[in-house]
Amino acid sequence: MSSPSGFGAAMEGLLRQAQEQQRRLADLQRQRAELRVTGESPDGLVRVTLDGDMKVGDIELNARAMRLDSFSLAEAMQAAIDAAYAAFEERQREMLGEMLGDSEMVRRAQDGTLTPEDWFRQFGVDVSDPTRNLRR
Q: Are 109 and 103 in contact (CB under 8 A)?
């Protein structure tokens, strides 16, 4: 049978790990909120900037864009917006990879197959058996 102090130490360790994960998540959320990415149309006539909420912030039109017909201008704008969203997703993937430190973990997080158990296991915590350190 384990001592109450062993249980307390194990719980304290789990709490420290949870707090570290919470700090990392807060850092990721802060970085995402500060994120700014730009996309450009293939012809370079339109540039669009997205903010951390994935909202279009700035739209820059090259003076030559004014010579385009409305259909071509709309296509160029859509291409720039699509490029900005792709850049946002890529940067977000990089940020998540930096946090997780494992490209396989990033892929699984993105496709929704990463379980909480797998997440904690990466940091040496086996949540499937919370009493494992209490038994000797």
A: no
Beta bridge partners of 56: 50
* Contact yes or no for 51/84 (Cβ under 8 A): no
Residue 88 and residue 37 in contact, taking contact as beta carbons nearer than 8 Å: yes
Band of the pLDDT at 27, cuts 50, 70, 90?
Answer: confident
Cα 46 to Cα 65: distance, rounded to the nearest angstrom = 7
Contact 39, 91 (CB under 8 A): no
Residue matched to tokens 């339109």: 46
- Whether 84 has a pLDDT exceeding 90, the answer reads yes
